[in-house]
Amino acid sequence: MISILDYDAGNIKSVEKAVQYLGEEAVITRDRDVIMASDKVILPGVGSFGDAMGKIREYGLENVVYDVVDADKPFLGICLGLQLLFKTSEESPEATGLGILDGEILRIPDAPGLKIPQIGWNNLEINPNARLFKGLPENPYVYFVHSYYLKAKNPEDVAASTFYSTQIHASVEHGNVFACQFHPEKSSEVGLKILKNFIDLEV
């Protein structure tokens, strides 16, 4: 069973449907006992960094996330869920994120002919050792919706990158912690394969 953390994020139902489509039981919950009893945990997210962290703390989920990570359960952050794994974001300078991974969340720089947020398909440069992308073709396309991006501190954490005005660390893997800036649940067959790889993970 996979727990999808419920803190009123907008893309929760689409993540649930994608996981269920792949034949895996999924539950949207903020119940600590249910989360800790699950095999894997997903932190989805759309919206602003500060508001999301406020909700996570309001619902008592911050310590649950730390406990999940400490228990070596496979954990997947999606879109804003990736950004929340870091301590700070330029979007909400007053807010403190989860601080599980090291890096910066920065605004995508303005560039001629490019619209911000980035909305649409972009291809990935994949680290060949990345577990989330096992079995995928070279440079697959996935679906992004974001104005802020990750610049990871540790190169070894970067599972995939893309380019949109600047080099963007689009996916990270660190131990049992995985995250994607893009939306696998909206990325057609490529996205379903990424989610299936997560479902099949053994950490």
UniProtKB/TrEMBL annotation:
<keyword id="KW-0378">Hydrolase</keyword>
<dbReference type="InterPro" id="IPR029062">
    <property type="entry name" value="Class_I_gatase-like"/>
</dbReference>
<protein>
    <recommendedName>
        <fullName>Imidazole glycerol phosphate synthase subunit HisH</fullName>
        <ecNumber>4.3.2.10</ecNumber>
        <ecNumber>3.5.1.2</ecNumber>
    </recommendedName>
</protein>
<keyword id="KW-0028">Amino-acid biosynthesis</keyword>
<dbReference type="InterPro" id="IPR017926">
    <property type="entry name" value="GATASE"/>
</dbReference>
<keyword id="KW-0963">Cytoplasm</keyword>
<dbReference type="GO" id="GO:0016829">
    <property type="term" value="F:lyase activity"/>
</dbReference>
<keyword id="KW-0368">Histidine biosynthesis</keyword>
<comment type="pathway">
    <text>Amino-acid biosynthesis; L-histidine biosynthesis; L-histidine from 5-phospho-alpha-D-ribose 1-diphosphate: step 5/9.</text>
</comment>
<feature type="active site" description="Nucleophile">
    <location>
        <position position="79"/>
    </location>
</feature>
<dbReference type="InterPro" id="IPR010139">
    <property type="entry name" value="Imidazole-glycPsynth_HisH"/>
</dbReference>
<feature type="active site">
    <location>
        <position position="185"/>
    </location>
</feature>
<keyword id="KW-0456">Lyase</keyword>
<comment type="subunit">
    <text>Heterodimer of HisH and HisF.</text>
</comment>
<feature type="active site">
    <location>
        <position position="183"/>
    </location>
</feature>
<keyword id="KW-0315">Glutamine amidotransferase</keyword>
<dbReference type="Pfam" id="PF00117">
    <property type="entry name" value="GATase"/>
</dbReference>
<comment type="function">
    <text>IGPS catalyzes the conversion of PRFAR and glutamine to IGP, AICAR and glutamate. The HisH subunit catalyzes the hydrolysis of glutamine to glutamate and ammonia as part of the synthesis of IGP and AICAR. The resulting ammonia molecule is channeled to the active site of HisF.</text>
</comment>
<feature type="domain" description="Glutamine amidotransferase">
    <location>
        <begin position="5"/>
        <end position="199"/>
    </location>
</feature>
